[in-house]
Amino acid sequence: MMKISKQTLLTLAIFAIAISCKKTEEAPSQPNTLRNVYKDAFYIGTAVNRFQIEETDSTMAAIVGKEFNSITAENMMKSVHMHPKRDTFNFEIADKFVALGEKYDMFIHGHTLIWHSQLSPWFKTIEDSLEFADVAEKHVKDITTHFKGKIDSWDVVNEALNEDGTLRNSIFLKKMGEDYLASAFKWTAEIDPDVDLYYNDYNMTNVDKRKGAIRMVKNILDQGIKVDGIGMQGHWHLNSPSLEDIEQSIIDYSELGVKVAITELDVSVLPNPWDLEGAEISQNFENSEGMNPYKESLPDSIQVKLANRYKDIFNIFLKHKDKISRVTFWGVSDGQSWLNGFPIRGRTNYPLLFDRDLKPKAAYDSIIALKERFDKQPAN
Ligand code: 9MR
């Protein structure tokens, strides 16, 4: 029998230890970030603005890159910014937005092609209806051509409905009639047949609006034109909409055979002036203590309420993860949120998962813990 020297044994032992260490290096455990924890459920996204796209703050940049696997441009791709003159497109910052998504291997969502708001003023100067339709078509086609193969989904039409489910009397409806809706989806698909096409709106849990959205999307689908998904914006509050309405809406939309995305999620913790009888949005509210109760900090009791509200909402999302393609927060941190300025300017709101110092809040912990519990449940 061959004799193995002590020296050889020692060398072999060191070699074995080295191999086992290498294995551990090669397969590091995934940190418990949102994108990792939710990766088998749906994309977890955030809206980004110029400051985040240019990664000027390293803490913020690290959060965006580690926590999210989808991005939406909060403002940069709206017509007023991207198509400021009839013959001028400004793709510079939007191209950087795409590059950011590519850098972090993200699902990139385009917002938005046809929207009456933040519409470039020159659009409104076109009197003739046929000319207006040509210009709208060129707008959609030029933009989708530029981003073909780089953008994964588009909000093709944004906010075309009134609260009662009828069509909003926007400049598009006035000039082109209701065909503008189907046309916008058709034009986008003609240029980029692989991109996912969404209709996106707020208050999509309200029964009348929901019926209107279903009618509208069904009408487009019935014409043989592709609609891939419905975006429920998700600008919600601590107590409304009800969990039942959120769940039923997800079910109703998905019964059309389309994907459902929660596209602009945030939960306001501040009083809503529209809830007050006879209340009007006016300057008077701006100095009112009652309307801006947490100027210095958020009390623990409300922090807990917010965490529970997010947990309850995500519980529904997980239950219906087969129907949901993406959940996107409308921003990363409270300091950045549009809700500090709407519907009353100058308030201090706390609607997102990271606080003003970019620290994760209890709401963040609650949805991470929820998913971890969900994963441990025995499969039915
Ligand atoms: O968050 C956006 C804010 O910075 C802009 O001033 C505002 C202008 O309309 O748009 C906000 O984003 C909106 C989104 O584009 C469409 N759905 C409603 C969002 C909140 O107003």
Describe this structure in words.
The chain contains 13 helices and 9 strands. With 380 residues, it is α/β, with parallel strands linked by helices. It has a single domain (42-376), classed as Glycosidases (TIM Barrel). It has an 8-stranded parallel barrel, surrounded by 5 helices. Helix 7 (129-146) links the parallel strand 3 (107-114) and strand 4. The protein starts with 5 loop residues before the first helix and ends with a helix. It binds ligand 9MR.
- Structural class comes to alpha/beta
What's the CATH architecture? Alpha-Beta Barrel
User: How are strands sequenced across the largest beta sheet?
Assistant: 1-2-3-4-5-6-8-9
- Strand content bin: 5-15%
Number of domains: 1
CATH class: Alpha Beta
Mean pLDDT: 92
Question: Biggest sheet, in brief?
Answer: 8 strands, parallel, barrel
Task: State the shape.
Answer: globular
Question: Mind telling me the CATH superfamily name?
Answer: Glycosidases
The third-level CATH topology is TIM Barrel
Per DSSP E runs of 2 or more residues, the count of β-strands stands at: 9
**H/E series, N to C?**
HHEHHEHHEHEHHEHEEHEHEH
In angstroms, what separates the terminal alpha carbons? 57 Å
* Percent of residues in helices: 40-55%
Bound molecules: ligand 9MR
Instruction: Note poorly predicted spans.
Output: 277-283
